[in-house]
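Supplementary Text 2. Reproducibility record for the structural model of the 332-residue chain.

All settings were left at their defaults, and a single model was retained for analysis rather than an ensemble. We include the record here because the model underlies the residue-level annotations in Supplementary Table 4.
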Amino acid sequence: RPHLSAPENLMGVLGTFHVVRCVNCRHLFMNPRPTLETLAACYPAGYGPHRPQNENSASPTSPEGEEKVAAPSAPQKTPWYLRPSVRSIPGLKRLYHWLTDTRSQILPPPPNADARALELGCGTGQFLDSLRSVGWNCEGVELVAAAAEGARRRGFPIHEGTLESAAFPDETFDAAFAWHVLEHLPDVRASLQELYRVLKPGGILAVSLPNVGCWEPIVFGRNWYVWELPRHLHFFNPARLRRLLNETGFVDVKVTHQRNLLNVVGSSAICLKRVSPRSRFAARLLDYPNEPKLWGQLAMAPFAIGLAWLHQGGRLTVTARRGDSSTAGKKL
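Retained model, structure tokens:
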């Protein structure tokens, strides 16, 4: 059943693309959509997630919320709100960490010195750097050649292509991460089954993705920032994703609503750009989600935290563990 039609809003890819809803399970997906052979062409040079991130953007967190940050490559000026004289104020450091914990990624400690981690859709390797900094032996899979080369320059083994083409042996990894990747995959179920195969029993799976079940697509309609057609092929709500993970053998599924308003900023920019196509402010606002500034995160934190508490966050972080073989394919 047709749901909406929209142009590509971010990178100048020509065409109008269509999202439909399955009449049986209510799942939303792009149709028609790119094939594996044409998918890479949907990611032009300069695509935001393939650019090295600003050091002031949100940092990965441990499950307890403590920041785990890889060492910066060059000295940077310390902002006023991080200077020792300011951070010495009682309670300010705790408040700062609470406000800046977006819960967008987790960075668990490795279970042993030989633990191996895989990042699917690793981009230029920034999160792999964070994994390595806490002791993981890690490698990545990346579809786009330029991004894969950037990750290789950081010293990581990178498999250029898809998860299936990498052909890892069974039960290779202790953990697998896929940050804003599932929505880009032509066959999400098949990819989750492959992740199940390459994870060791009890291995961690951690993913993030847009939340189509929140208020944002209702308010912004076809201007919702993370429709991102034709690169986003599937759109999940928490219940649908939980069910799919259970059906592919994963257990202990935990869904966290991220505490950020990046989709709102991007969607507002798209609305403004439609009214004023040449607006420089709209262009800067549209690029903000790729390189969010810490001051902006602090300013929006109270609203973002409130929406997450109401389970209306526009982005989800989901963790699960690989169950034993008896859970694979079982509908829970």
